[in-house]
């Protein structure tokens, strides 16, 4: 990806609503080299990542539109989607 924006805050696109937002407003979903999918609240986990709003609606949208499958170039298991939804709900409570 090439960007010539001189904005200090890197922007990433949410895989749910497809809006570009400052990276810090988004949550990174990462697929680790071991094949585990998790919400990366530190933004430092190794692996292929995708960004999503800190919003369960966007996660649901990403699931419905196969945004996760596209982002990770694989079919993400329903079990995993459920786990991510639960983790997202937990984050929302904090
Ligand atoms: Zn979003």
TrEMBL record:
InterPro entries annotated for this entry?
A: YlxR, YlxR-like_sf, YlxR_dom
Gene3D superfamilies per the record? Answer: YlxR-like
Residue intervals of the YlxR domain: 12-84
Question: What is the protein name for this chain?
Answer: YlxR family protein
- What would be one Pfam family of this protein? YlxR
Coiled coil ranges: none
Signal peptide range equals none
CDD domains recorded for this chain? Answer: YlxR
* Top-rank taxon: Bacteria
Give the organism the record lists. Lachnoanaerobaculum gingivalis
């Amino acid at each position: 990806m090439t960007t010539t924006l001189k904005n200090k805050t890197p922007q990433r696109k949410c895989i749910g609503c497809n809006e570009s937002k400052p990276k810090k407003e988004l949550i990174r979903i990462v697929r680790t080299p071991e094949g585990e999918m998790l919400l990366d609240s530190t933004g430092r986990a190794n692996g292929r990542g995708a960004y999503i709003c800190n919003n369960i609606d966007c996660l649901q949208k990403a699931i419905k539109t196969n945004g996760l499958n596209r982002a990770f170039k694989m079919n993400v298991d329903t079990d995993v989607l459920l786990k991510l939804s639960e983790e997202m709900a937990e984050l929302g409570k904090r």
